[in-house]
Structures are given as C-alpha cells and as structure tokens.
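[Discussion] Sanity-checking designs against the backbone

I'm trying to build intuition for which residues belong where. Below is a structure token string of 339 positions. I'd appreciate it if someone posts a full sequence so I can compare it with mine line by line.
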C-alpha cells in the first residue's frame, strides 16, 4: 500500500507533445529517467490531453513512416516535407500504414500504462476557444502551443486546475511564455484560470543554483534534481500556508522538533495543525498543534508572533516514533494546516 499524500500538496505536471515523442522514441536517457521518477513520485500527477494526443499521433506517424522507409528515425535537421504528400523515396505511406498504426498504438499504450496518463482527463471542449484565441492573438505563442497551455489548466468545462505545470523541450515556447507572462495571466484570470508554471528540460534549476540541460550528455543525479524541483513547486502551490523547514535542534528536547521560519514576513501564525512533507517526498505527515511554540527559550503564548533576530522555533508534538525520527531531521517542509 502506498503512503498517504494529501491532495493539496500534489503537483499536476502536464507533458507537452515533444516530451512524449522523445519518451517513446528513447531519444534522451535523462528525460526517460526523469519521467520514471515523476511517475513514481506520490506528490506528482502526470497529465496530458486529447489535443496533445492528436499532435503526438501526427508526429509519430511521420517519424515511424520515415523509419520504415529509411531504416532509422529522422533527426532534427531532416527535411520532413514528404509529409505533405506522404511519399518518401517513391514509397507511399499507404503501403506501411498497418505497421505504423501498430507502432503508434503501442506508443499510446506505453504512455498510459507506464506513465499512468489518461488523455481523457483533458478533453477538447468549446470553452477552450476564447481564452486560446485571446492568448494566441496577444502573444507570439503559436496556436498549437497556446492550446496546449490553456488545456493544461482547463481540462473540462466545469473543471479548472488551481495549479498546473507544463513540462516541455521547446526553449522558444518557454521564452515566449516568459516574455508574455503578465498578458497571459491577465487573460487566463479573466476566464477564472490560474497561469501555469513552465519547466523546460534544457533549463532546469538544481539546488546548487546550476542550470541543468537534460539534453546534454551529462552525469546527474536525477532523483536529487527532481526532488528539489518538486519541493519548490509544492511550496509555490501552497505558498500562503508555507511555514519553513525542520532543522536539527541545537538542544534536543523530548518530543520536540525544531523549525526554521522561512515565511516571507518572518511571522509565526496560529493554526489547528501542521503538515510536514519529508525530505524524501515519501508521504505527508499531519499533526495537531496543541502546544505553544518556543523561541529563544521563551514560550509564545500569543500569536501572531515575530522575531527577526531568531528564526528557529521549537514545538512539542505527538506522533509515532517513526514520524518523530523523520521530523527531527533537517529539510522536511512545514505548512500550516487550517490556518
């Protein structure tokens, strides 16, 4: 049985067409390792859409036909104009359609089974038209990429995600997105949507601050990289309730944990409980806050409270021995529960 994770702390990661094509064609080992990590992380829900499925089928149809004729998949510089007439080296697509169809259908099954993606979770519906049109006309983003973006946060007519993340291999797409972020946010907000976050596998930020390019043939710890990225996205999604991180207390007190306050205004607020996310992203741990915080050897009897000179707080909690051993370690995220 998998460990419990509160839905509020799950991050919905929406895979762009190019990510799925690279995955099934195994063009990038680091990308495939990344998707395996994400599909197995209990804090991540991988998503895609009917529209991406349609784009994927078209790209894979073209590439697989090329492979049938040439014996290998096309590279980035390959002339793909043959797809207008579907004739390559005098050979017609019709003669290979059954082989191509079987390959592409197998790809879709692999995506659904191994990445646990259901394309039916994000359907094409009429309410996508207006915001997609408005973003397309107001920015330099193509109609295809605009529809990918809007369908990410608007999966069904009566369903809008409050927080979504697009994962793409298209650097130009991300640059256009970043350059028009204010415009996009205004348009989506007017339709009751939140702007998604954007991750490009060529420009991932590691915990050390170094920019990682998964397309480069480098040796990196994929689990460590994505563990850091997912934690930052969880904080971003739940920013209003973020308190800080656990630290190893300077003085060990029975049944007490130590928290370093990372709240933007350095204030400690009252709450019914606290939610902890272990550094290894294994589960969520919920505890009731039935004791007072301590700061600089002083019991805090009235909240809100602020001390900019000492951001370490101690709190006595009641939980299992296993959870206590975890929470006494450094790096667990801490959030207010029912602030």
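Best answer:
Here's mine. Compare freely.
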């Amino acid at each position: 049985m998998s460990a419990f994770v509160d839905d509020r702390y799950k991050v919905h990661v929406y895979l762009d067409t190019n990510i799925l094509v690279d995955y099934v064609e195994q063009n990038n080992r680091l990308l495939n390792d990344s998707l395996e990590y994400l599909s197995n992380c209990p804090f991540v829900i991988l998503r895609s859409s009917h529209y991406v499925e349609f784009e994927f089928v078209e790209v894979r149809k073209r590439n697989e036909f090329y492979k049938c004729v040439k014996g290998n998949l096309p590279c980035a510089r390959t002339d793909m104009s043959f797809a207008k007439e579907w004739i390559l080296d005098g050979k017609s697509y019709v003669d290979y359609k059954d082989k191509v169809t079987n390959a592409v259908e197998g790809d879709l099954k692999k995506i659904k089974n191994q990445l646990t993606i259901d394309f039916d979770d994000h359907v094409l519906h009429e309410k996508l038209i207006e915001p997609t049109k408005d973003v397309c006309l107001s920015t330099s983003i193509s109609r295809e990429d605009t529809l990918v973006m809007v369908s990410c946060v608007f999966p069904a007519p009566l369903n809008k995600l409050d927080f979504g993340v697009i994962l793409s291999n298209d650097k130009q797409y991300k640059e256009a997105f970043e350059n028009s972020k204010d415009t996009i946010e205004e348009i989506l907000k007017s339709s009751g949507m939140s702007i998604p976050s954007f991750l490009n596998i060529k420009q991932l930020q590691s915990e050390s601050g170094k920019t990682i390019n998964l397309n480069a043939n480098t040796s990196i710890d994929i689990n460590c990289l994505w563990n850091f990225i997912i934690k930052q996205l969880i904080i971003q999604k739940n920013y209003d309730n973020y308190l800080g991180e656990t630290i190893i207390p300077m003085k060990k007190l029975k049944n007490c944990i130590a928290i370093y306050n990372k709240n933007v205004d350095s204030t400690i607020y009252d709450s019914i409980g606290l939610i902890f996310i272990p550094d290894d992203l294994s589960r969520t741990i919920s505890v009731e806050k039935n004791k007072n915080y301590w700061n600089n050897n002083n019991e805090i009897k009235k909240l809100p409270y602020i001390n900019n000179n000492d951001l370490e707080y101690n709190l006595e909690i009641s939980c299992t021995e296993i959870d206590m051993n975890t929470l006494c370690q450094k790096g667990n995220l801490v959030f207010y529960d029912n602030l």
